[in-house]
Design a protein that fits this description.
The chain is α/β, with parallel strands linked by helices. Helices cover 42% and strands 17% of the residues. Helix 3 packs across helix 13 (359-382) and helix 9 (264-273) crosses helix 13. The structure holds zinc ion.
């Protein structure tokens, strides 16, 4: 895959954890879900964190048990807490795990201001992580699932008309080329906004398609909100960093705010993190408005807290390569054989699309993560 041509923003190294060398950061990133969990638990133990393991009802591809793990560092009676979340989109978890593990292993938890704690939620979608998928066990895009399922679901007629194009019955060079032409034609005819809304905003018409929001709150949705309520209900000031990958220039971390931007919360986050907090509401983000994003649900889950939530979205490769990897994986689970040469090739493709397994990328990710974690923590300490 070719890297995006837009420039990669390099951060001032003074903003980084000074003792880190490029080689040392990479070792905190895992090779698979099992290693991710082991690294996270080891880091939490060495940091003396309070931990909890929440088991998922299903197993991983090697028969392994699956867990969402949480680790609390800092005072239990904190007046402010930063939450970090990895693997909302399963396979994107390599990035979040690396940042969560590095934070603990590099000792940054020891620098917390008085009264501030950090709650790391590791692998909120452990099934997708272990199976190298972006979605949950029920093919749900977790970040389209936080919606009131008792009410009529949003209509996405564009996706309905494209479902067979997005996921054709066969996946080979001929069908890939043909369906890509059809998607390009739709984009040219309907315009960029309609195309993005059809594909990316979330759809509730094809349970076997991509970006499917689900018809009920999925396990990871319920688990996330339960963890937030259990640990944070009495904490006045809460910040959330939800790690993602796959959108934007290589290694660049965009801060995406998906809630209405005409609020004091948004202005305060810009005060803490600079005007690099982008708004889907204002159209300043690379991401477009989406249905069922987790941000509003997290705010609603903590009615006694001021909740400052942002997605930290790291760019990987060019959009067509990322989208094709998601389409391929969707085809594989709908029509293909996981245990086949093509199945293994598709798994390698989606993993690479959402996790550039390279030191330069990991270093950019970590530098940005330190900057944003510290910005949130310092802001929370002043709140
Ligand atoms: Zn994501």
């Amino acid at each position: 895959m070719r890297r995006p041509t837009r420039g990669v923003k390099r951060l001032d190294s003074a903003a980084c954890a000074g003792q880190n060398t490029p080689m040392s950061v990479s070792r905190h990133f895992p090779a698979d879900y099992r290693e991710a969990r082991a690294k996270f638990l080891a880091a939490a133990a060495s940091a003396g964190a309070l931990t909890e393991a929440i088991q998922h009802p299903l197993r991983g591809p090697h028969g392994e048990k699956l867990f969402t793990d949480v680790a609390w560092t800092g005072p239990r009676d904190a007046r402010a807490a930063l939450v970090t979340i990895s693997a909302t989109h399963g396979v994107e978890g390599y990035c979040g795990t690396g940042c969560q593990v590095a934070w603990l292993e590099e000792g940054l938890h020891r620098d917390l201001p008085k009264g501030v704690a950090v709650l790391a939620i590791h692998a909120i979608n452990p099934h997708g992580y272990a199976w190298t998928r972006r979605v949950t066990e029920d093919n749900v895009d977790l970040n389209r699932n936080f919606i009131d399922h008792a009410r009529p679901h949003p209509v996405n007629a564009g996706y309905a008309s494209l479902a067979e194009v997005v996921t054709p019955p066969a996946w080979n060079p001929t069908t890939i080329a043909g369906t890509t032409r059809a998607l390009d034609a739709y984009r040219a005819q309907q315009g960029e906004a309609a195309y993005k809304a059809a594909i990316f905003s979330g759809q509730f018409v094809d349970p076997h398609g991509i970006f499917f929001g689900g018809y009920a709150a999925t396990w990871s949705n319920r688990t996330l909100l339960a963890v937030l309520r259990r640990y944070l209900s009495n904490i006045p000031h809460v910040g959330v960093i939800d790690y993602h990958t796959g959108l934007g220039p290589y290694g660049h971390g965009e801060l995406i705010y998906g809630l209405p931007a005409d609020t004091g919360l948004f202005r305060r986050m810009q005060d803490w993190l600079g005007n690099e907090v982008k708004s889907t509401d204002l159209g300043t983000s690379a991401a477009q408005p989406i249905n069922g994003m987790n941000q509003a649900a997290m705010v609603q889950a903590l009615p006694r807290s001021q909740v400052h939530v942002v997605a930290l979205e790291y760019g990987t490769w060019e959009p067509p390569a990322v989208l094709n990897s998601l389409r391929a994986d969707n085809w594989l689970h709908k029509h293909g054989e996981l245990d086949s040469e093509q199945g293994r090739a598709i798994k390698a493709e989606i993993r690479h699309a959402l996790y550039p397994d390279a030191d330069d990328w990991r270093n950019l990710v970590w530098e940005r993560a330190v900057q944003i974690n510290r910005g949130m923590i310092n802001g929370l300490a002043r709140a």
